[in-house]
Design goal:
Layout (H helix, E strand, L loop, with lengths): L5 H27 L6 E2 L2 E2 L6 H4 L1 H16 L2 H11 L2 H20 L4 H27 L7 H12 L6 H15 L2 H11 L2 H14 L3 H9 L2 H13 L1 H15 L1 H11 L7 H21 L1 H10 L3 H13 L2 H37 L1 H11 L2 H41 L1
Antiparallel strand pairs: 1-2
Helix pairs in contact: 1-20, 3-19, 4-18, 5-18, 6-16, 6-17, 7-15, 8-14, 9-12, 9-13, 10-11, 12-13
Length: about 400
């Protein structure tokens, strides 16, 4: 039996390899191309557009369902949120926002508006909110109890005048309260006819010994009447005699010692406690009734825009403000962390429908052109697709070799 021609043995593997290679390549290309439907004689040609462009809407839905069903489940979103909103990142974000706000305040073009806003806030806080809050808090029995008790025990009980202070107070008393003219008028007011008669009768009845003899034989009635007339008729001389009497009796020195010895610590313990309670009740009652009115009256007299402008200037030039931003951002970050630990699960359940991630994915896939979609997929699985094409060629060669072997055996 004669051998078959050589070309009949070589042709099947070559043709099989070429057909397998280009068939797979054509099949892969038909997944994406043509991008648009083609028409002939008014009829659309089959397999146009390609498989993926023809089913892009359904593909988008499937991709969204796959991502939302297996990748972006609520637990995974919670884990992502925890990683994104950890304490350090949250603190950095809050600090950035606070610094941005402070920088905006420093801009001159924004300063008038910021001053007006801050002035309105301060006026509302001190003129409306603070009086209402003070009126409510003052009704509580324990309002400022520890603070007022501390003030009473540490300040009022230990309050005492130094020698120089006592000397100044004593001088003021002698010049204003106990001046000679005041003493003279008080003496005149005291020495009425009725009082002189009572003094004279009491001395006559109750005195004994030498005093009884003087009271009954001489009497004090005429002396007191002459003293009153002297104070009324000769005012300057009376004032001079009283001033000399105050000086000779050392009244100022006595007042100085009295004022230095004057202290609430000398009171009995029970009296001091009752006085402390009375002091606390008086302050609380005043704050409840007159405190709000006093605050409102004071706030009405202030120019709040000037106050706000001064406050902004101090804040801008204050180093403490910059340091405080870091502390404030840290505290706010801890508050956010505690809130997330408590309510993150329920929050994510509410956030997922609002974010509408699946629709975003669908819209994004639909908005991508077939050419871009092909380029993106090719960039991801280029090696795999090339391997499929090469595998088709290899399988074609193997099938061709099988045919050649079968032909050779049959000859």
């Amino acid at each position: 039996m004669a051998m078959p021609p050589l070309w009949t043995l070589i042709a099947p593997p070559v043709l099989g390899g070429v057909i397998g290679y280009f068939t797979n390549d054509l099949a892969i290309r038909m997944l994406f191309r043509p991008y648009r439907p083609l028409y002939a004689a008014g009829r659309r040609l089959p397999f146009t557009p390609g498989l993926i462009p023809a089913n892009q809407q359904r593909l988008a839905v499937k991709i969204a369902d796959g991502i939302m069903g297996s990748l972006l489940v609520p637990d995974e979103l919670q884990a992502i949120a925890r990683r994104l909103l950890d304490t350090e990142r949250t603190q950095a974000a809050v600090l950035w926002l606070l610094q941005m706000a402070l920088d905006q305040v420093k801009l001159e073009q924004h300063r008038p508006r910021t001053v007006r806003i801050l002035a309105g806030l301060l006026h509302d806080l001190l003129n409306q909110s603070l009086p209402k809050l003070l009126r409510v808090l003052a009704r509580r029995e324990d309002f400022l109890e520890s603070q007022l008790n501390h003030f009473f025990d540490q300040v009022l009980l230990e309050l005492s005048l130094t020698e120089s202070q006592a000397t100044q107070v004593a001088s003021w008393l002698l010049e204003v309260i106990l001046s000679p003219d005041t003493l003279r008028l008080a003496l005149v007011d005291f020495l009425t006819d009725r009082n002189i008669q009572v003094i004279d009768e009491d001395l006559r009845e109750k005195s004994t010994g030498t005093y009884w003899v003087v009271a009954n034989l001489v009497g004090v009635r005429n002396a007191l009447v002459r003293l009153r007339n002297f104070c009324l008729d000769d005012r300057e001389a009376a004032n001079a005699r009283l001033a000399e009497l105050v000086q000779s009796l050392g009244i100022q020195a006595r007042l100085v010692r009295l004022l230095q010895d004057l202290s609430l610590q000398n009171l009995p313990v029970g009296t001091a406690r009752r006085l402390r309670k009375t002091f606390r009740d008086t302050v609380r009652s005043y704050l409840q009734t007159d405190g709000p009115v006093l605050i409102q009256t004071l706030t009405e007299t202030l120019n709040w825009e000037e106050v706000a402008d001064v406050l902004l200037t101090r804040l801008q030039n204050s180093r403490v403000m910059t340091v405080s931003l870091e502390l404030l951002s840290a505290e706010l970050a801890l508050i956010v962390e505690r809130y997330l630990e408590k309510d993150l699960e329920s929050l994510m359940v509410q956030v997922i429908p609002v974010m509408d991630i699946d629709q975003v994915i669908i819209d994004r896939v639909n908005a991508t052109s077939p050419a871009e979609l092909e380029a993106n997929i090719q960039a991801i699985v280029r090696q795999e697709l090339t391997a499929i094409v090469n595998l088709g060629g290899v399988l074609g060669v193997l099938v061709g070799l099988g045919q050649s072997l079968l032909l050779w055996l049959t000859r």
